[in-house]
UniProtKB/TrEMBL annotation:
This is Probable dual-specificity RNA methyltransferase RlmN. GO terms for biological process: rRNA base methylation; tRNA methylation. S-adenosyl-L-methionine binds at residues 161-162, 193, 216-218, 292. It comes from Paenibacillus yonginensis. Specifically methylates position 2 of adenine 2503 in 23S rRNA and position 2 of adenine 37 in tRNAs. GO terms for molecular function: 4 iron, 4 sulfur cluster binding; metal ion binding; rRNA (adenine(2503)-C2-)-methyltransferase activity; rRNA binding; tRNA (adenine(37)-C2)-methyltransferase activity; tRNA binding. The lineage of its organism: Bacteria, Bacillati, Bacillota, Bacilli, Bacillales. HAMAP family: RNA_methyltr_RlmN (MF_01849). Its EC number is 2.1.1.192. Keywords: 4Fe-4S, Cytoplasm, Disulfide bond, Iron, Iron-sulfur, Metal-binding, Methyltransferase, rRNA processing, S-adenosyl-L-methionine, Transferase, tRNA processing. [4Fe-4S] cluster binds at residues 111, 115, 118. The active site is at 91 (proton acceptor), 335 (s-methylcysteine intermediate). SUPFAM superfamilies: Radical SAM enzymes. It comes from the Bacteria.
Length: 348
């Protein structure tokens, strides 16, 4: 199969152009066609010679994201299920905020982390996405927003999959997104979320970026976290926290902790107080997420009253905490829900 053009950096495209006997700036022109003019074919690159366009067509291909289904929420959230070249499917979400448009991207087909409250892990991990397949989700979203005269203002890597288990492709994607000659997304407008892959947290700390880091924590201690997140048995709670402290010491950046509240499981005041004691010396923010009901899972949402009690218990201990604004609740916009329905339908 021909490689995806989105998999290549500006420097790699410049090197390719030189290999074809062309000046390096031809690679810059190709990069501009891809990310600034956002074309969907090499034929549209009209300031390149016909011969060069033919070479591009012979050697590369655009990522095909076939729209399988699309749901639009009354709050402006749009969720897509896209088909890939190998008949796998991935989800991408456009979320409208008062500060702009945020895109939630997927980094893997399926997920092997196994969080017991999440739909993404149903069916396990099928494969990693290439950097170009992640890029294509943002470019597709931007093409849709182009029609409204709007742009992608932020990116969250919180879709299906564990980005730090697809580390190299995720980092290449990030470098392509922040490139000043491309989409030029501000580093501080990008957040990558991990379940706590310890070696990759250390690597990410040493990257020297300004990209935000979020951790799916979901429990205040090792025993409860292992019940909810099997990955905790591989990378125990204390090891994750040690890696995060290294990250903070190295970067000086605030860490976001994502905490899914599950009725009667991890949502009591004593859980909040224990979490506060763990986080008290860290520059951090806790984002409380009332768990989405997944038909295949047994968990229930925390009551509204208990959500606010949990929030107050953290705030009383000096922890910066918010309750996530729910978006796309009416269209099953949580990770993996749409793909799970698609898989079930195809299995019939």
């Amino acid at each position: 199969m021909k490689p995806f053009i989105y998999d290549f950096t500006l420097e790699e495209l410049q090197a390719w152009a030189v290999e074809q006997g062309e000046p390096a700036f031809r690679g810059s022109q190709i990069f501009e066609w891809i990310y600034v003019k956002r074309v969907n074919s090499f034929e549209e690159m009209t300031n390149l010679s016909k011969a060069l366009r033919q070479k591009l067509d012979d050697q590369f291909q655009f990522v095909t994201l076939k729209e399988i289904t699309k749901f639009e929420s009354k709050d402006g959230t749009v969720k897509f299920l896209f088909g890939l070249h190998d008949d796998h499917a991935i989800e991408t979400v456009i979320m409208k905020h008062n500060y702009g448009n945020s895109i939630c991207v997927t980094t893997q087909v399926g997920c092997r982390i196994g969080c017991t409250f999440c739909a993404s892990t149903l069916g396990g991990l099928k494969r990693d996405l290439t950097a170009g397949e992640i890029v294509a989700q943002v470019v597709k979203a931007q093409q849709i927003l182009d029609e409204r005269g709007e742009r992608v203002s932020s990116i969250v890597i919180m879709g299906t999959g564990e980005p730090f288990e697809n580390y190299d492709n995720t980092m290449k994607f990030l470098r392509l997104m922040i490139h000043e000659k491309g989409l030029n997304i501000g580093q501080r407008h990008i957040t990558v979320s991990t379940s706590g892959i310890v070696p990759s947290i250390y690597k990410f700390a040493d990257e020297g970026t300004q990209i935000n880091l979020a951790i799916s924590i979901h429990a205040p201690n090792d025993a409860l976290r292992s019940k909810l997140m099997p990955v905790n048995r591989r990378y125990p709670f204390d090891d994750v926290m040690e890696a995060l402290r290294y990250y903070q010491a190295k970067t000086g950046r605030r860490i976001s902790f994502e905490y899914a509240l599950i009725g009667g499981v991890n949502d009591q005041v004593e859980h909040a107080e224990e979490l506060a004691s763990v986080l008290k010396d860290m520059l951090c923010h806790v984002n409380l997420i009332p768990v989405n009901h997944v038909p295949e899972r047994k968990y229930v949402r925390t009551s509204r009253n208990d959500i606010f009690k949990f929030q107050r218990a953290l705030a009383d201990q000096g922890i910066n905490v918010t309750i996530r604004r729910e978006q796309g609740h009416d269209i099953a916009a949580a990770c993996g829900q749409l793909r799970a329905k698609h898989m079930e339908s195809n299995a019939r």
